[in-house]
Amino acid sequence: MAAVPWRLSLISEQPNLAALSNQPNGQHYQYHQDKYNDWRWWRSSVTQLQQQRRKVPRSLVCGFMLFGLGLISLFTGHVASDLEWYSQRLVKRSFFYSRLEGRRREGIDIWKSKYSNLFYGCSERGRNFPSAIRERASNGYLLIAASGGLNQQRTGITDAVVVARILNATLVVPELDHRSYWKDDSDFVNIFDIDQFISYLAKDVTIVKRVPDKVMRSMEKPPYTMRVPRKSPPEYYLDQVLPILLRRRVVQLTKFDYRLASNLDEELQKLRCRVNYHALRFTKPIQEIGETLVTKMRKMAKRYIAVHLRFEPDMLAFSGCYFGGGEKERFELGEIRKRWATLPDLSPDGERERGKCPLTPHEVGLMLRALGFANNTYLYVASGEIYGGEETLRPLRELFPNFYTKEMLAVEDLKPFLPFSSRLAAIDYIVCDESDVFVTNNNGNMAKILAGERRYAGHKRTIRPNAKKLSALFMARDRMGWDTFSKKVKASQRGFMGEPDEVRPGRGDFHEYPSCICERPFTDDENSKGKDQLLARIPVNLKEKVHSKYVGENQGDKSLQRLKRRMGEEPISLKRE
User: Fold this and answer.
1) Which helix (H) or strand (E) segment is 399 a member of?
2) β-bridge partners, 225
3) pLDDT at residue number 36
4) By the 8 A CB rule, do 301 and 409 touch?
5) How many Å apart are CA 414 and CA 451, to the nearest integer?
6) Exposure string over 347-374, b if 16+ CB within 10 A, otherwise e
C-alpha cells in the first residue's frame, strides 16, 4: 500500500501544459523533454516494481485460496442450516421437533426418552367422518385371505378394514393363512377377540362373521377371486375392484398383506390406528398368559429389556447372509432358501456391508453392553427356534445372566399353545410390548408392528440396530479397546434409539411410523416468554393443515366421490341410510 502515495506525487508533477505555453519555444521544449524523461523513468520503475511484486510463491497463493474456500464453506454451511430450518417451518413441522434438532448430541437415557410423556396416540374419529353404511345398503361383501405369520396377517387385517371403508363394502371377518411356512391352522377367533373387533369398529365399517346364506344362494357364480398389487392406492380399488364388487356382490382378495398404500388421507390413517391399536385385541387365554409373564418379569426386576432375536433358520436363509458356520451352515440354509424360487442370488459380504444381515445373539449382547446396559439387566428373549440352539445363545447368556424366555417362565401354562406358532408369537408380542425397552434385530413384521405401537403409546424406548455401521465395528472390535468400542457403538446408534425426533413424516411404512400421534400441550419457557400454550394436538404427520384434523369435510370421502365422478358414474352415498 506504500507505493500508492508515491504514484500520486509523481503523477502530480507531470507538465502543466497551460503554464508551459507562455515560455519561449526552446525553453519550453527542453523543459518538456526533461519532464517527459523523468516521467518515463518513473513508469519503468513502477513496472519493474510490479513485476517483482508478481513473483509471489505458489504455496502462498494456494494458502490464500484454501483460506478463502474455508470461509466460503463456513458461510454456505450457515446458510444451508438456516434454509433447512426455514424449510421445516414451511412444511409445518412441529415446534417441539424443531427444538429437538439442536439436542441430538445430548446424552440420552437408555431406558426411557425424556420426551416420551409429551406424546400420545390420537386416533379418534373426526366429527365429519360419516358413520358406517348398513349391511343391506353396502356395495357388497369383501372377503380377505391374509397371508404369512401373525404380524404379517395383522397388517393385512388392518388394511382390509380400510379397503372395506373405501369400497363401502361389508367386511367379512378375515381368513388367516394355514399354508405358510409356520403351518398354523389357527383361525381369527383363536387369536383375536372377534366380538371386540366387530363392536369397536361398528361406527367405521360393518363387519360380519360370514356371508349370509341367502346371499350365497342367490349368487349365480362363486365369489370372484383376485389379487391386488402391493401398495395399491385407493384409486386402484375404486377403478379395478369396485366395478367387480358391484357386479358380483362378493369379492375375495387373496394374499392380502401390504396391499394398501402407506400414504392415505388423514381420517383413513386414523382408522388404521383404531384397528391395529384398539380393535385387534388378543383372546382372553392369550392375554392372560401374556400378562402372567409380564408380572413374573416385574417381580424379578422393576424394568426389563425384551429382545426379538429373529435368528430362526428361515430368517437366516431368507437374508442370504453367512454367519460363520462353515459348509454345514451354507448347505442347511441353502436348502431352506430353495423354498422361495424367486429369491435372487446374493453376496453374503455385500448384504452385511449394506446392513441387511441380522445380528447374531452375541452381537446383540455386545451392542447392549456397549450402550450402557449392565450385566445384571433382565432380558426377555422372544424367539422361535434359534439356529444353532444353545451354542448360539451361550455368549448372550454370559453377557446377561438374567436371561428368560416364555418357555422358562411358564412351562405348564404354555403347553396348550405349543402346537400353534401364531399363538406363541402373540404371547411374545404382549411381553415385548409391555417391556421398558424393546430391541429389534431385523426389519421384519413383528419389529415394524411393535415399533409402531410403542410410538403410538408415547415413544417407548425401541432400539433398532444400525447394522450397516455396527457390522464394521464388530469385525474390527479386536483391534480396539472396550471404551473405544463402546463410544463408537453409541455414536452409531444415534437416530436408532426410538427418540421422537427420529420420525420423519411421510417416510417409511405406516405400520412402523404411524401418523396418528399427537403432542401434549406445553409451554416453552425458553422461547415463548409468556405466549399462550402451543396447540394441544399437532399431528406428527403434518402433510395436512392443522385445522383440518377435526373440522371440515372428510378428505377421504371427498377423494372417493371425486374418483367416482372421474369414472363417469353416480357417486355412491357414504351417509347412513
Assistant:
1) helix 389-399
2) 252
3) 47
4) no
5) 26
6) eeeebbeeebbbbbbbbbbbbbbbbebe
Q: Summarize the confidence of residues 135-150 as an average pLDDT.
A: 95
Q: What's this model's pTM, rounded to 2 decimal places? A: 0.74
The pLDDT assigned to 541 comes to 39
Percent above pLDDT 90 for the chain: 57
DSSP helix, strand, coil percent of the chain (3-state; round to 5): 50, 5, 40
Q: Report helix, strand or coil for 569.
A: coil
Displacement of CA 144 from its chain's centroid (Å): 27
**Grid coordinates belonging to 283:** 383372546
Higher pLDDT residue, 359 or 30?
359
* Contact indicator for 234, 559 with CB cutoff of 8 Å: yes
How many Å apart are CA 552 and CA 247, to the nearest integer?
A: 34
Partnered with residue 308 across adjacent β-strands are 382
CB 166 within 8 A of CB 238: yes
Q: The C-alpha cell of 326 is what?
A: 462353515
Extended strands (E) in 470-562? 517-519
Q: Are 567 and 239 in contact (CB under 8 A)?
A: yes
Say if residue 110's pLDDT is above 90. yes
More confident residue, 100 or 341: 341
422/406 Cα distance (integer angstroms): 14
Q: Residue 569 has which C-alpha cell?
A: 358414474
Using H for helix, E for strand and C for coil, what is the string for 208-276?
Answer: ECCCCHHHHHHCCCCCEEECCCCCECHHHHHHHHHHHHHHHCEEEECCCCCCECCCCCHHHHHHHHHHH
Contact 506, 459 (CB under 8 A): no
Helix (H, G, I), strand (E, B) or coil at 308: strand
CA angle 431, 434, 440 (to 5 degrees): 70
